[in-house]
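Consortium newsletter contribution from the modelling node. Members have asked for a concrete example of what our holo predictions look like. Here is one, prepared for the guanosine-5'-diphosphate complex that several groups have been discussing at recent meetings.
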Amino acid sequence: MRTFALAGNPNCGKTTLFNALTGSTAHVGNWPGVTVDKREGVYKGEREKVAIIDLPGIYSLSPYTPEEVISRNYILDEKPDGIINIVDATNLERNLYLTTQLLEMDVPVIIALNMMDEVEKVGDKIDVKALEKAVGVPVVAISALRKSGIKELMERAVAMPSERAGTAVFGGALKGKIERARQFFEGLGVASPLFHAVKMLEADEIELEHDGAKELLGEIAASADLEAEIADERYKYISAHFSSVKSKGKKDALTKSDRIDKVLTHRVFALPIFLVVLFFIFHLTFSENLFYLNGFTEGQAWMPTLEDAGLYNADGEPLNFGVELLAVIYDGTIYSPGVILTNLLNLFLDHISSGVVALMENGGAAEWSVGLVGDGVLGGIFAVLGFLPQILVLFLFFSILEDTGYMARIAFVLDRIFRRFGLSGRAFMPMIMGFGCSVPAAINTRTLADEKERTATIRVIPFFSCGAKLPILTAVAGGIVGAFGIGNADVITFSMYVLGICTAVVCVLIMRNTSLKGETPPFIMELPAYHMPGFKNLMLHLWDKTKHFVKKAFTIIFASTVIIWLLSHLSWNWHYLPDEEMNGSMLASMGMLIQPLFTPLGFGSQLGQFGWVFAVAAITGLIAKENVIATFTTLAICIGAYAGAGTEEGVEELVGLINIISADTGIAQGQLIAALIAFIAFNMTTIPCFAACATAKAELKPGTFRRTVAFWLITSYIVSCIVYTVGSWWWTLFVWLVVAACAGAAIVLANKGKLRLRARRK
Ligand code: GDP
Ligand code: MG
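And here is the predicted structure:
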């Protein structure tokens, strides 16, 4: 089977083409640097199958970034049978810069002129024939997104002769110098001597390792800086010979996108706009009160609930199925789309679990088995599954932001701010990915060239609350709203996300000024064009998420809920304990043992005899964060905490649990709310799940992982302690501010002291 490699600038549509060719569903993002590693697939053509390799996006073949090294080494060492060079036709000249370098290699090259749909849309024209003649290799116009021209591209690719000698675009004095170097590499017997020759004249580190190369460079180039000259020559050649193939249409698309950029990347307004956009997204996903019709509190309610309207019976149940369906959309307030979908799914799940339990009871199943299936397994799994719609809605919005090109603008905006904290805008992509899952996010940090910047980024990625932590946020926020009738779930959720981001920023700031000091490398990124997001791409994204989530629910979460249920219903001498005696179980006694550890955070001993549930839930979160809510639900049901308020799985049990704890301990409401929020904060900033830890360990420099775990533990402890104490006793804010000021001053003084020492030594 022959192998073709896809090479091109970041964001030129390589992955889109790769997916179109191989039928795979790799992540496509309107974002430079999404593909960090190479990826393989097979194109099943009419005559033969062809292996396709998707290389990371690069602007040049100089070894400055990991992507460039991966791509260059692949082409030189693995010797593909051909390169499909994808060129973004809307940005022809810049893309052809890489092309001129690829042409220097002894590999057959075919140019796929992508995004032709965009070019046509703005009315521009490209003379493909003329371009083909000018570059001397086949050129095919395609649109990877619309899947046009792809068949022709592959037909011409497989028809290419298997050998091709490299060609260069240089004339004049450079030509002679390059020829001398080329002969030198030919003498060494390496493949693609022309490519090596040009790179050596650019004083490329890799080439200078060849024996005798340094001496030769000294001889040819003397003191001149050929790198700049070569780059200059390439651009001159491109504009002289290739750019004439493009003629401008009447419509000017660039200015339109420029005008949008002026607003969205505005020095002052960019960040507030981003926060507003984010809040809007959270509102649509989590809000139980879409139009704020009743204000922020239930006290002001002027729209009647279904219960007030007399549509519920004496037991607080809807009169008929129609009312039940209505309650999915409206109950005193109109719910947001995310909540409506969640309610709908929960209605369905509710019917399933009560059906299963009824079936088992009628069939005469043993009491413990009904408990295990109903409370343990179904309670736990459904509590987690019930959050799927909200997770999907949130990710739909994030994907749209990414696909349209807005996220890239945010990276650009944040670079200005990040820089002050010692990170570059490059670190933003992994962080945003962290909102999805820490695992790919940690892998994506490979795009960060600086090792210390990378370590700092990997450490703070878990603070960007991932999809699996979302149920914790929503359920606890929902629990607070449900139990106390104050606040809004979307406001709480949004603030917790912001808390995570702030924690990350502060931690980076501290690390970059203490243990991980270093220069912040420059961040060069060109803003991708605005695109309409592709519907299919969005759906693929969501489908991937769904599969992953459901699979996890039925494997890890399933196993964990069974274990939790068993441990909570067995005593140390292996006797079955009914629900009422759960406090004598193995799980309860273990929970009670560690419970005092959490007292400074608000969810320890002060929560009384059932407080251990919090400790246990936090610990099970180390396996998978979904477990936190699964555990809560399973245990809350057994404790008998079933409030019947709301239709959401997980939330209603939590409301019940909160009510029981309040009644049991008589704790002040404000203090309990602070403790619950501290609990969310703890879970958001503590050690991430098992999979994320394993990835972080693999990606971090050896020896730093243990310190990283300690960092997570300490951070989560401090952050949730602050949340709890400030939430319970507001004046402690000043104590914390003084502590922070002292710590900051200590760091500044220590750094100054070191500087002075160094100065004195000099
Ligand atoms: P990569 O970074 O080179 O892998 O680029 P991607 O495949 O991730 O695509 C970058 C962006 O360009 C995505 O938003 C795609 O939807 C979009 N895109 C890719 N090919 C085309 C095309 O032929 N036409 C248009 N209009 N957009 C495209
Ligand atoms: Mg890609």
